[in-house]
């Protein structure tokens, strides 16, 4: 029987395809949201073998040096003890393009960092922007479809891109960043990085703090104009990869100053904006940047495929003292990133040298699956205890015990489980604030870039976008509209 309503793969009608099921309006997502899980699991399996997003990247090893002790905020060992050095791996990437795409595209840049700590791998998988287009991961597959190729023409599709943004004004802040002079970093060394999401710290007293990570380039920030990028893409589509290889070969090791913003747990309940909304930033006037260390990159991988293509960065890779927050995009990514790696690489992807812990030993009861028996060169076998036991608890494996001393403090929840759509619905103020700090020349280049692709879409979508720009700032909307009417 024909129908015109959305269903799941088993034919069940979907009541709400735009809002994930959460515990309270600002609470974390629920595993029982089978529709969210189905969307993300299917999305992770749409392409092989390259990554669906962040397909083309550059990987580099380095070190993090702590310059400020954070024991008042977290028990995480790599953030305790001034002067402590931790081995790192970072993968930079473009987001929307395929493996063969150019490095100089107008696109956010992935900034995925791994700390090989003594208590396991800690990953911060962020971007070169402090915000993102969405606040709820249930929309992510749909958004990425608009950034990829039209399923009929196999061409990039401005209509799909702007149609989606016109119906999701939460994207306004990130769209303004992307279309501005900040939208095309000249290379990976001369751009900032951000954890973007809100994460949590907890200390030895069981006190929780919310935290945002910032990585400030010591090389300065350099961006390309659209015209410069178009030329560079034709001359050298691998420009950012080549720049990094040359810098490391010349011992011109790039560095970032690492800073954090920290919010006491209780303040999140009364703060003016939702601190877990990925489309928002925390004003530095309220939560100043605190310098905590330095990140230096100093060694290229020896095997690109083994180390860069198969690195499995995931925001779910936490260590004691660092955890998640009710950020709905982060909550969805906690599942989708690791699931994508299980699909792309195999069940035991964490046994590959780039993924296994370098400074800690992995002990568990997982034995079977793809790549089972792989040895980690840093800590030997990852099959768990030196016995045949593949279950726990048991009396034969020498005692793999829980480590209750590292337990995360309880997260207080409040509210009814529902699909919440209207919270902190001010999608315009921060986008407008960003527009207003631009110079006249920057504003003009911004609106010209927007009009360049927006002029290719239908009139109704143009009108919706002009209305959004106008709500962010009247001059912003007027300038875009004038170019569209010219």
Q: What's the rounded overall pLDDT mean?
A: 91
Question: Can you say what the CATH homologous superfamily of the domain at 33-135 and 185-360 is?
Answer: Catalase core domain
Largest sheet: number of strands, sense, barrel closure: 10 strands, antiparallel
Helix content: 25-40%
Strand content: 15-25%
Number of helices: 12
What's the gyration radius in Å? 23 Å
At the first level of CATH, the class of the domain at 33-135 and 185-360 is: Mainly Beta
Spans where pLDDT lies below 50 across 5 or more residues: none
CATH architecture of the domain at 33-135 and 185-360: Beta Barrel
Number of strands: 14
Give the SSE order as H and E letters.
Answer: EHEEEEHHHEEEHHEEHEHEEEHHHH
Description:
Its EC number is 1.11.1.6. It comes from Shewanella electrodiphila. The protein is an alpha+beta fold and 486 residues long. It has a domain at 33-135 and 185-360: Catalase HpII,  Chain A, domain 1 (Beta Barrel), CATH 2.40.180.10. It is 27% helix and 17% strand. The protein is built from twelve helices and 14 strands. It has helices spanning 34-43, 140-147, 158-167, 172-179, 226-235, 239-249, 304-309, 328-344, 429-437, 440-454, 459-472, 474-485, and strands at 21-23, 57-66, 85-94, 109-117, 120-127, 193-194, 199-202, 208-217, 255-264, 290-299, 322-323, 375-376, 380-381, 417-419. The strands form three sheets. Strands 2, 3, 4, 5, 6, 7, 8, 9, 10 and 11 form a ten-stranded antiparallel β-sheet that branches. A hairpin with a 3-residue loop joins strand 12 (375-376) and strand 13 (380-381). Helix 11 (459-472) packs antiparallel against helix 12. The protein is globular, with a radius of gyration of 23 Å. The N and C termini lie far apart (48 Å). The model has no long low-confidence stretch (mean pLDDT 91).
